[in-house]
Write a sequence for this structure.
């Protein structure tokens, strides 16, 4: 679709909406009384306008006209442009009339990230150094060929993962020496708590590709604590003393990090689990989770959502929602009171508007491989603007998922009070579902 905005929206005026006095008879009477013979400041106050705004000259005849095909001279882009990028970002090139003010970008594409190529696969990352507002979370894409190993390593932050393609074997050891070894497939998740050492190895015919999310915006996949790197920077006589073996034992430790490298496939799963669990057993709460085996948290006509947090996955310190929106489906207007949201668009096309206090609103388009970021308590929606399903994930650096929806808020606030604000009529308000929809239409 070249343009996602319905034509009716394009011809909307962007001049401030007319301010009308409340239809409530008491306040109208009050306003009228004050209007008679009152100073302009009092009039402005009665109409709910700031004095400065009220004193601005009228801009009659200055209404902005927008056309669906952008043919007006005021809309033209006569110099060169990047047509392919513009087509992917129609809501930036032709913003909805409701967008206003500046707002830092909340989108970054993995397509723009530097790709580190290795014999066993590749990796690239989107961090706060790329997307300035993503202060609390960062993401990594990684490809491992069959047998390709992401070296044994750890890092300060926790690692949450979604398998996007193929399968892998993951290994980890917790602070009590208990192990986790399992094989994960497309759609599966894993969590490696901060400081817990782990590895990932591609399996099967063609290995895997996966997404990692870290609860640290400044995370750097290229600078983690690596087994080979550490041993190469430890005196051999210390290694010998540590394990009570001759120093020659470590003669073949690689002088440089392996990071991602190609090796033979692992031994059968049960055999490796038995070996690793000897003496200590396995971690009490599994580090992997299979969303395909859970009942969706919410299903509606517009799509479905699976919420996975510490309530149904005790090992995790990172909450997530996996959302599928059918064509035209809407992830309803909402916000998250407890944390920032990091998004990844797995497949399909959509748009999101983020509203920020002070009248700022910005709409951006998203598609496969895009990262989105919404700061805590900033309201937003996501609409499927394509003709196929839109699948995206919402990730939060907190153990428990929380949201407040516009509909939920209005449904549980006195209808008279809400109507006094938005003048929809109380009939509409009483009919809003008392239970949160999550996805529209229901
Ligand atoms: Mn890791
Ligand atoms: Mn959200």
């Amino acid at each position: 679709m070249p343009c996602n905005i319905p034509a009716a929206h394009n011809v909307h005026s962007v001049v401030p909406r007319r301010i009308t006095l409340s239809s409530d008879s008491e306040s109208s009477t009050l306003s009228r009384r004050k209007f008679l013979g009152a100073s302009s400041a009092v009039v402005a106050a009665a109409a709910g306008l700031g004095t400065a705004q009220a004193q601005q000259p009228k801009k009659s005849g200055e209404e902005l006209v927008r056309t669906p095909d952008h043919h007006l001279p005021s809309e033209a882009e006569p110099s060169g442009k990047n047509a392919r990028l513009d087509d992917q970002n129609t809501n930036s090139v032709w913003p909805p009339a409701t967008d206003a003010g500046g707002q830092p970008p909340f989108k970054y594409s993995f397509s723009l990230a530097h790709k580190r190529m290795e014999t066993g696969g590749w990796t690239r990352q989107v961090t706060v150094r790329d997307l300035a507002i993503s202060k609390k979370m960062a993401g990594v894409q990684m490809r491992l060929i069959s047998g390709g190993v992401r070296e044994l390593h750890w890092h300060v932050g926790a690692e949450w993962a979604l398998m996007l393609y193929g399968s892998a074997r993951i290994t980890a050891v917790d602070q009590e020496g208990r192990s986790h070894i399992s094989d994960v497939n497309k759609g599966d998740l894993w969590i490696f708590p901060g400081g817990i050492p782990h590895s990932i190895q591609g399996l099967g015919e063609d290995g895997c590709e996966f997404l990692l999310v870290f609860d640290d915006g400044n995370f750097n996949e290229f600078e983690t604590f690596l087994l080979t790197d550490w041993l190469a920077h430890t005196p051999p006589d210390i290694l010998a003393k540590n394990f009570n073996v001759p120093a020659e034992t470590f003669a073949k430790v690689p002088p440089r990090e392996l990071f991602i490298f190609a090796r033979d496939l692992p031994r059968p799963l049960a055999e490796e689990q038995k070996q690793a669990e000897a003496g200590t057993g396995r971690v009490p709460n599994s580090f992997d989770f299979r969303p395909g085996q859970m009942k969706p948290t919410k299903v509606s006509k517009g799509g479905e959502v699976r919420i996975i947090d510490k309530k149904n996955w005790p090992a995790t310190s990172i909450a997530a929602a996996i959302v599928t929106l059918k064509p035209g489906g809407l992830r309803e207007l909402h916000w998250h009171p407890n944390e920032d949201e990091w998004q990844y668009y797995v497949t399909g096309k959509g748009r999101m508007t983020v509203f920020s206090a002070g009248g700022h609103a910005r709409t951006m388009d998203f598609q496969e491989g895009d990262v989105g970021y919404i700061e805590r308590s900033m309201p937003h929606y996501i609409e499927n603007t394509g003709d196929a399903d839109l699948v995206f994930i919402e990730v939060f650096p907190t153990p428990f998922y929380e949201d407040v929806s516009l509909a939920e808020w209005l449904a549980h606030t006195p209808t008279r009070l809400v109507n006094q604000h938005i003048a929809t009529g109380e009939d509409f308000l009483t009919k809003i579902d008392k239970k949160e929809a999550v996805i529209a239409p229901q």
User: Anything to note?
Assistant: Residues 344 and 352 are 13 Å apart (CA to CA). The longest strand covers residues 159-173. The chain has a mean pLDDT of 89.
